[in-house]
Each structure stands twice: as structure tokens, then as C-alpha cells.
Amino acid sequence: MHIERSIKSQVLASLSHGKVLLLYGARQVGKTTLVKEVLKTIPFGRYLSCDEPDVRDAFTRQSSTAMKAFIGTASLVVLDEAQRVPDIGITLKLLHDTYPDLRIIATGPSSFDLANSIVEPLTGRNIPFTLFPISYGEFASTVGEIEARRLLEHRVIHGMYPSVIASPAPDQEVKRLCNDYLFKDVLRLDTVRKPLVVEQLARLLAMQVGSEVSVNELAQKLEISRPTILSYIRLLEQAFVIFRLPPLGRNRRNEITRLEKIYFYDTGMRNALLDDFKLLSLRQDAGALFENFFIVERMKWRQLVGTDARHYFWRTKEGSEIDYVEERGNELQAFECKLGGGNINTRAWHNAFPEVPVTQITMETLKQSLK
């Protein structure tokens, strides 16, 4: 099944801006497939995988003339897995400055691999993109609205990785991805001295999706320091495994403004960590799982329409809560997830923000919130 990626049009449009395009994203989300689709539309494009030793050698501490000779007459060159080339940022800067008509796309699996070596050399010379797993909108455009709604529960449970969607055995496929790729980039870093603790941390975070997370409690459970916990959380963020959702604070005395929530970029990966693929009707965490799915889908939609927003949750000390709040400029949008529908209590929110309505998100209304 081929699913057209919405970000493709943005990448194509950006090729004319005279900058190096950087495509970040977790492993197996479809970066290679995407750049090969882009290359099909560009005459004289060339794909180069930096996993190949001869390609790495051709771009490692070479002159611009030697690199151009290797590229040949291509008007667009894609360097896949670019982080495999030492000092790749300097290499890309040299190519960009020497051959301004040469269009370049560089991909990498995680921001600590590619971004850390590129940010300074390519300051003002790059356009970054992040490729998420398949969005619900992309899925629905491929299989049809009716079929997408019928399969929505499976997507919440198994996630949106391309190979998982296509697999006849999604439980096994998402577990394979989790075991083979989820921690691959994190665990090979020299700064990670306790690899097992990283996996244990990820599982603890998976169990706390939808709840506020105490770093101190995590440190006590794992018997490591608070700074180490924070550094490992940051690495999991950079590897596109998790993201943090801070509390919305407006200096009101009854608001919770200290603890954050942590969600997963893919609910299937989260469930694989817990080895739990039960149907929603049989789960204790069904509401939190659907909440995670919606928030990620909303982030994907924001990327598609090109409107950045800061995102939060909101909770009072008395326990009143709104699952997800977006802030763009001076405007707020509030969302409350209710898996099976029914009434939601928004009195505390409306007392604090009387001008901001709360949109209820259910399985039936999910698609409407992504338009």
C-alpha cells in the first residue's frame, strides 16, 4: 500500500529556496521512501545512501571539486543517513557555498545525530523538516473515510508506522520495530552509560501516559540521579520516541504549573513497550491511549497546514482538567478527549477562560478536528 505523504509538496516547494533541506524523523517512518518519491519528480536527481562505505568516503574530508565529481551532473542530490558522514555539517556547507545551484536533501534518524553536527555550519543555509509516522488524514486519503473510521481502533492500538499499517500481523511488526529500532540511536551514544535504564525509563513513561510525571519519583524507582533521568528523557525526545506536554499557567493560584505530561509519538510503539495490544473495550488505559493518539494527530495536522502552536494541558489543584490546549499568538484552543462521548465538565475552564470554548474529541469527531 502506497500512502502519499502530505509533506512531500512542502519539500518540493522548498527546493527552489536555495537552501539545504534537512529531513529528520525516527527510523522506519518513511524518510527514504519520501525522498525517492521526490526524486521521481526532479530531472537528473541522484540518491546516495551514506550507509555505503564508498559514499561515506566520497564526502569525508574531501574537496568540493572531488565531491562534485562524485555527484556528477545531478541537479539534486539526496544524502540519506547523512549523519554517517563525519563532520557532515561542514561538508554540506562547502557544497552549498561552492555550488549554489546544486539542490541538496540530507536525512537523518534523530536530531542529536544530524542537527548537532549541522546547526552551526549551516546557520541560515538550511530548512528543517520532521517526518512523523503516517497521519490519520494521509491514511484516510488512501483507504477512504469510511474504511479509515472502521480501522481507527486498530490504528490507535497499533500505531501509524508504514510497515505496521501494511502488515497482516501488526502485533509482531510493531514489536519488531520497537525491539530493532526504537532505542538504536540512543543506546549507541557514549553519554548513555546505563542502556537498560533507558529502556526501563521508557516503559515507566509508557505506563504514565496521560498522567503528570514526577522526575523525582522516576529517579527513586530507577535508583539513578534526577539529572540523569532528565538527560535520558531529553535523548528519548531527540530520538522522536516521546515528547513533553507542559501545564498551561496564567499565574492563577489554583493552577498546576509544575509537573509535565509525557506522550509517545506513536501509540503502537508505546503499546509495544508494554506488550499490550488489547482492544480498547478491554483496556484500563483506553482513554489515555486515545488522548495520546489525538494529540499526536493534531501535531501532524499543524505541521501540514504550516501553523505552529505551543501546546499544553490544563489542570487545577482541585483536579479539574482539560486534556490539550493550543496557544497561537494570543488565541487559545481547548480540547477534551472522551473516547465514548458523553458529557464533559468544563465549568472550571470556563470560569478561568470564559471566551474559549472546549471542543470534545471522540472517535466519531476525530477527523473533524484535523481539518
Please provide a written account of the structure.
By secondary structure, the protein is α/β, with parallel strands linked by helices. It has two domains: 7-130, P-loop containing nucleotide triphosphate hydrolases (Rossmann fold); 136-190 and 238-370, no CATH class. Helices cover 44% and strands 17% of the residues. The chain has helices spanning 7-14, 31-40, 53-59, 64-71, 88-98, 111-118, 136-143, 145-150, 152-158, 162-166, 170-182, 184-187, 195-207, 215-222, 226-238, 267-274, 286-305, 347-352; strands at residues 20-24, 45-49, 76-80, 103-108, 126-130, 212-213, 242-245, 260-264, 310-315, 321-328, 331-337, 358-361. The chain has a five-stranded parallel beta sheet. A four-stranded mixed beta sheet has the order 9-10-11-12. Strands 6-8-7 form a three-stranded antiparallel beta sheet. The radius of gyration is 22 Å and the shape is globular. It starts with 6 loop residues before the first helix and ends in a 10-residue tail after the last strand. 37% of the residues are buried. The mean pLDDT is 92. This is ATPase. Residues 17-133 form the AAA+ ATPase domain. InterPro entries: AAA+_ATPase, AAA_14, DUF4143, P-loop_NTPase, WH-like_DNA-bd_sf, WH_DNA-bd_sf. One of its GO terms (molecular function) is DNA binding. It holds the Pfam family AAA_14.
